[in-house]
Amino acid sequence: MRDSEKHGLLPELLASLDEATLEAMLTDWPIWARPDQMPPALTDEGTDWTVWLVLGGRGAGKTRTGAEWVRGLVFGRPPFAQKPVGRIALVGETRDDVRDVMIEGVSGLMRVHPRHERPLWQPTRRRMEWPNGAIAQIFSAEDPESLRGPQFEAAWLDEVGKWRHAEAVFDMLQFGLRLGMRPRQTVTTTPRPTPLLKRLLADRKTAVSRATTRDNAYHLAPAFLDAIVHRYAGTRLGRQELDGEMIEERNDALWSRRMIEEARLTSAVPPLQRLVVAVDPPASSGKRSDACGIVAAGVTQDGLVIVLDDATLEQASPAAWAEKALALYHRLEADALVVETNQGGEMAEAVLKERDASVPIVPVKATRGKVVRAEPVAHLYEQGRVKHAGAFPALEDELCDFGPTAKGYGLSSGRSPDRMDALVWAVSALALGTKASPRVRSL
Fold this sequence. Notes:
Helix content is 35%, strand content 18%. By secondary structure, the chain is of the alpha/beta class. It is elongated.
């Protein structure tokens, strides 16, 4: 039977069910949940997780995940719990957030329960009580001391990435998680590079689930996805708030996230006077080789440099990256290939010429360190003289991670900044070096 036929039968099937059966089916969370919304399996005591960290974009279903987890604990339903959990802490940024999102929200605790299981919500006592006697108390992350004294078997912490006193609240809560055989907690949040989230991600007792806004598209307004995703996809804000990525920020890097976002071109690419594709070839090939940086950029008559594409290839053969660079050159109708010749440069020129001898190649040689070459380009960004025609997440991550290290300047991972190198060569050739005969074109 085709999917369309199945969907056509669904309304008829639902209409045939009595109200109690329909409600039971609609509130049976394992039927509807995505895999990332179900808790990780529990293994032997002492070797499994104590924190389930649910990272996701806006509207990815994090609140529903947390609420259903609490519901599963309260009634002792596998895979959430083997027996009912009687004492639970609900912690949000403020008490209003706990009430408006975690309890009364559209995906909150009062909404996910069928009527016969629904807890009694007592706002004045700041607690919920279920028909089986389980109790959840609410707490504000603005008051770590309020967690001194109470004790729990489990806790749900929401939007920890926004908490001002996150580590103090989390640490105080740990002293209260001392009831039952397996005290544990679920953290639902849009990721931010905060000390607590980094600490949790590094802890072997943390199980991690990830989801993007798109993963929950069925439950979101199409207009929201069309407008928001189109506007923010690939940007720092979009990667954090839609894709649920942890976007790092180095205070000592040559580029900042703010600088990159301010360089984002918000209109059509203007006519370009000259256009180049810069290639930073790896010294070797194979699984352990560096990437081949391939970045295209153009310059306007007024001297504004526009970064057009990042076509960098990871661990590619000379034939593969040469084909990629030449394809980009021809697609953009560029004026030249700018090729760094320090490591394997002669080989790089030979490989490119072998495949297309008509392409002009401008060899460039690094006589100074990477930071000395990169600083003038970073200054052009600060002056607003470089723009990005789109979002280039991998390239932008390298720019914002290039800073001081124990061995000089580089990436915090220790890897070679190949994308950044290609960008520096491209921008330098257009704005800091000798210009070839201009040829005006529009993209």
